[in-house]
Design goal:
Two copies of one chain form a homodimer. Chain A has about 575 residues and is α/β, with parallel strands linked by helices. Chain A has helices spanning about 80-85, 95-105, 130-135, 140-150, 155, 165-170, 215-225, 240-250, 260-265, 275-290, 320-330, 335-340, 340-350, 370-390, 405-415, 440-450, 470-490, 500-510, 515-520, 525-530, 550-564; strands spanning about 10-15, 25-30, 35-40, 40-45, 50-55, 85-90, 120, 175, 190-195, 200-205, 230-235, 255, 295, 355, 395-400, 425, 455-460. In chain A, the strands form five sheets. An eight-stranded parallel barrel of chain A has the order 10-11-12-13-14-15-16-17, surrounded by seven helices. The longest helix of chain A is centred in the last third of the chain and has 22 residues, at about 470-490. In chain A, about 65% of the residues are buried. At the A-B interface, helix 11, helix 16, helix 17, helix 18 and helix 20 of A face helix 11, helix 16, helix 17, helix 18 and helix 20 of B.
């Protein structure tokens, strides 16, 4: 497996904190070539500024650091966590299942070797970023994200509202989430909230018997290379405990899971045998491995399940259909809803965030914005307040399939009913008729809902509805969602967001092809397409050729002007 | 070259007119398999309705018709045109250049053999669809589009406002354009206007020495297969007169060109040598070949050219930069603006529509909605009234690169300043940072502006800014734009637009995979992605596998419910 990540003419740089001078924020710096112009015969060389790019690739792109997947990434946050003095390292893992797997020596060959013992909050210590924020404490994590969100601003004199104190306020009020499980100190801090850069999540994970551990770790690193801000491991097959350990130890971004998937594996796929006890043990197991956020479908209420019967496509959320079935089989309120306070008590001990899963999200244009969907949203609004009471950071998952004219209602209603908690949507897909191209149908909706205020967009790959994505699908899915998120950042006027567009466009106008490629989201692809043109005339691409190159003609104009 | 177009389980059908019973409107019919459900042990089979799909593939998808590219397509509209009695067939082509090419026997091997003599309006006869519409005449072309726009409505009892009389009114008032050069009788009537289905245009054409005639004709047919509603031939290399003839004779959709490109070739690329006389001859040449609409950059005014100097990217329209340079070199108003009435007099004789080219469209996020762009829009608003005075159908071209929050202003201003003439935009691209993926950056903008009222979207391929598109790029570009256009149709509530989404989603829910594929925009790709999953378990795709298939669980729920 290729472990190093490189980008052309890019350098890994670290910006030190001001409040925490030992803390260094990683970024990618692209050095531009200077511009060349002529005044008469005189050649004038003007330098172009370095451009900083938000970097999710962690130590993999630092050529100074030796990567050893068997040891995992450097534990960046461990010192910060320890120095707060409010957590303790346990003498062994707490979950039954975790111990069982540990003691099963047939798994030794699969196992990540250097598992550290887990941390947990000392008794009655509130250790979440939200708890600190409410107390007025600015953590290194908070300063980290403030610097990260402001790239290029200081250098180019762009005003910004994103101070460490602003970050603290947003977290304290629940408008933003900083996922930061104390057992995933390898992750670089990032923030999810509508007053910050729009983030994207990528999903990986095997199903049934497809793909092994190596392949999933490789996909995780690959996703981080292209710009995934968080990573959900949705594995449902064999050895998901061990796969997850490998992924978390080598993942520089927050990791999310849907614990009900593993719980269901533990009862051999028999929904009716799921129980609070099995689920609880799974939560603890994953909290101690270092999962940063859990999707929990606690919004499914027995009284609302029947609402999906009116639909064209019923329930399309895996977790939603599992919990709905459980409720009906037992004719009982779901244990996720009933035990939601207990769940929050567990999550608070590790600073795991809850992502309230939308089990009743619409799976077709026909079902968008229906009673079932909005009834669940109301429940999520109730649950988010309960999470905050326990200092658990929370966000809300959203659709799905929604035609453009119904997107706004989703966002406005979510803000109102869920008290400004961040929204995290899957697309939405704005039409159902393009399987094979659903990264595009969904990017159209994602860009719009991101502009309206959605904080994180869950990517969709070209294989959606058809098959598990391969590496190429992951790449295309990530880039497509980087586009949607960045388009939303521009429309929201995020400070400095337009710097990269301006630099790339200036490079394009000046025929600095290398800069145009190197500043783009996918330099390799841009370059390969350019070469596919078999252009022979140096400066001009085959799209128009030299005589019809508007950029050349437009530059000539300036000279025409000068001659007058 | 493969000439026949096939789609799985599809049949070419023809719906006869009511006003014109001999006129038959082509559509594609997809037959669905029935649904199977169980009530207890009893198997219940319920049929699903046929779904009609808007079909741009012409005779190529009619298995009853023998295609011979050397003879061209059937001349569908010739009888309608002749029967109106207001045109005459000329004894030879009128343009000097056309005669010169005809008499050059070194071109014989390249030439389309069966060139018919051109038609032209009899003296003082107003023969445009707009002229008829203003007189209250409903033509067969108008009824054709009314039936085409209403597919599925009558069968499924969906109300629609699109009657032949409504079509007539929209054309009379300039809100819609029905491109219909009397010398392109092979084209099937279609309509461009904001109260109709959103249309997409695809661009083909060689540049410099890339690609030959065969390849361009093949791309044209390919574009029509995937759903291109009109086709612009932007060739700028050798033999563009002959290439164009081959394309038009074999093109079932309206063809557009930018005549200034060919005019520039005639003066060997020397902008300063362009003149009204050369341009005029080029217009006549192309009118008589059968081009259905011309992009004409008559909105470039000498007084406005300097406005582009403030830009990051100057002028990015090829036609715009050519005309701007001409104005500056001669320090003179452009001959396109000065001779606009003469241009309209020519176009009216053949019913060629004018597409007012936006020579000053922004080519970067930075330059969007600037003074240069809007000054040109004001001029276009003046010109469109002059076109309508001559009964010339007209539409307006638009940007380009525009961030999402500036899209609405474009649409609203265009409607106001251009008196409701249809808008035809390129994208817009909502960010500059994704070369290699500009079909996606632009589809995000295209869907939005389509929803807001843009009538036709010019496609962008993955190779935009980098190289000429190949066949695969054309396919991806067309499908991407079909998605954007269809998303806009759904959001606008076009009658019957949601029928296909509902049918596909129902098929998905019922595991009728074949229907899911066959109803999709690109059945071949959807199927190949499904197979790439190497699924072995029949009904389930590898994305979730059988135990985690929400659709299966959701169907199970219904049974769970029943058992209670």
């Amino acid at each position: 497996m290729k472990q190093k990540i490189t980008f052309p003419r890019s350098e890994k740089v670290y910006i030190p904190g001001k409040l925490f001078p030992n803390m260094r924020v990683a970024m990618r710096k692209v050095e531009q070539v200077p511009s060349t112009t002529f005044e008469g015969e005189e050649k004038i060389i003007t330098p172009n500024p370095d451009i900083f790019i938000y970097d999710t690739s962690g130590a993999f792109s630092d050529q100074q650091i030796t990567i050893d997947l068997k040891k995992g990434l450097p534990r960046l946050r461990e010192e910060w966590i320890q120095s707060r003095g409010d957590v303790e390292q346990l003498s062994e893992v707490s979950s039954q299942y975790g111990r069982m797997r540990r003691d099963d020596h047939t798994l030794d060959s699969l196992r990540f070797e250097h598992i550290a013992l887990p941390y947990r909050a000392k008794a009655n210590q509130p250790i979440t970023q939200m708890a600190y924020a409410k107390q007025g404490i600015i953590t290194p994590e908070m300063e980290y994200v403030s610097i990260r969100e402001n790239m290029n601003c200081e250098d180019l004199g762009i005003e910004t509202h994103i101070t460490p104190e602003f970050v603290r306020q947003e977290i304290a009020e629940g408008r933003a989430v900083l996922p930061a499980n104390i057992n995933h100190p390898e992750a670089e801090p990032m923030i999810i909230g509508r007053n910050f850069l729009v983030k994207i999540n990528t999903n990986i994970g095997n199903s049934a018997t497809t793909s092994g551990i190596d392949e999933e770790v490789e996909k995780a690193i690959w996703s981080c290379k292209w710009g995934g801000d968080t990573l959900m491991d949705l594995s449902t097959g064999e050895n998901i405990h061990e796969t997850r350990e490998w992924i978390i130890r080598n993942c520089p971004v927050p990791v999310g899971t849907v614990p009900i998937y593993q719980a269901l594996e533990k009862v051999n796929g028999k929904v009716e045998e799921l129980s609070w006890e099995i689920y609880r043990d799974t939560l603890i197991e994953q909290c101690e491995q270092g999962v940063d956020y859990f999707t929990i479908h606690a919004g499914i209420r027995l009284q609302n399940v029947h609402l999906a019967e009116k639909r064209l496509c019923g329930i399309v959320s895996r977790g939603g259909s599992i919990m709905s079935k459980w409720c009906l089989v037992h004719n009982q309120e779901s244990f996720l809803y009933e035990h939601f306070d207990d769940i929050c008590d567990i999550l608070a001990q590790y600073d795991v965030a809850v992502s309230l899963g939308d089990g009743l999200r619409p799976g077709s244009i026909h079902d968008a914005n229906d009673e079932a969907q909005f009834a669940e949203l109301d429940t999520m609004g109730e649950l988010v307040l309960r999470a905050w009471d326990k200092n658990v950071q929370a966000f809300i998952e959203g659709p799905g399939h929604v035609p453009m004219h119904k997107i706004k209602e989703n966002m406005e209603r979510q803000i109102e009913k869920c008290h400004n908690a961040p929204f995290y949507t899957l697309g939405p897909l704005v039409t159902d008729i393009a399987p094979g191209y659903d990264h595009i149908t969904s990017a159209i909706g994602a860009a719009q809902i991101g502009w309206l205020g959605t904080a994180m967009l869950c990517y969709v790959t070209p294989k959606e509805h058809l098959a598990l994505p391969d590496k190429e699908d992951v790449r295309v899915g990530v880039i497509t969602y980087k586009i949607a998120a960045h388009a939303a950042d521009l429309a929201k006027g995020h400070p400095g967001a337009q710097v990269r567009d301006n630099a790339l466009s200036k490079a394009r106008y000046e025929f600095r092809w290398k800069d145009q490629f190197d500043l783009s989201l996918d330099p390799e692809r841009a370059l390969s397409y350019f070469h596919a043109g078999k252009h022979t005339e140096g400066e001009y691409c085959t799209m128009c050729g030299p005589n019809f190159c508007a950029m050349r003609l437009s530059r000539d104009l300036k000279n025409t002007k000068t001659k007058e």
